[in-house]
UniProtKB/TrEMBL annotation:
GO terms for biological process: exocytosis. GO terms for molecular function: guanyl-nucleotide exchange factor activity. Belongs to the SEC2 family. This is RAB3A interacting protein. GO terms for cellular component: Golgi to plasma membrane transport vesicle. Keywords: Coiled coil. It holds the Pfam family RAB3A-like_C. It comes from Cebus imitator. InterPro entries: RAB3IL/RAB3IP/Sec2.
Length: 173
């Protein structure tokens, strides 16, 4: 097996795990490639003080059933009671902190909406971006790239998750 010299700066064990995963892609989180990313990036990125809701968010991301939408400009008195119970435009449902919440999430077929801060939104979307890409690989939709390019895209998505964990996000989210 010939390695591209640009890979040498990366984690070679993860690179080899990725190559093995790519040969038989699975979404099973216990495979070595995904297990490492779950431990180092996904779990820390989706850890919030409201742990029960955080677990439900992770499950919805894994099942591709989470939706995020901007919050309308309607006054709070017109928002459904269920939505108010799950945070509100001024309180993040995942952290419990008083924050301006410009987006809300819906998990699966639930009728509840959960208001989330920009910080939480960026953490969730960075994980969603990672899952979208590996699903595309699993489904055979990423064809124009060689394995090294795919690996570097995975590394870029991991970087995005790391930045989100540290609290870096774009204000316009």
């Amino acid at each position: 097996m010939l390695l591209d010299f640009t890979i040498l700066g990366a984690d070679l064990s993860l690179y080899n795990e990725f190559r093995s995963w790519k040969d038989e892609p699975t979404m099973d989180r216990t495979c070595p490639f995904l297990d490492k990313i779950y431990q180092e990036d996904i779990f820390p990125c989706l850890t919030f003080s409201k742990s029960e809701l955080a677990s439900a968010v992770l499950e919805a991301v894994e099942n591709n059933t989470l939706s995020i939408e901007p919050v309308g400009l309607q006054p709070i008195r017109f928002v459904k009671a269920s939505a108010v119970e799950c945070g509100g435009p001024k309180k993040c449902a995942l952290t419990g902190q008083s924050k301006s919440c410009k987006h809300r999430i819906k998990l699966g077929d639930s009728s509840n909406y959960y208001y989330i801060s920009p910080f939480c939104r960026y953490r969730i979307t960075s994980v969603c971006n990672f899952f979208t890409y590996i699903r595309y690989i699993q489904q055979g939709l990423v064809k124009q790239q060689d394995v090294d390019q795919m690996f570097w895209e995975v590394m870029q998505l991991r970087k995005e998750m790391s930045l989100a964990k540290l609290g870096y996000f774009k204000e316009e989210l």
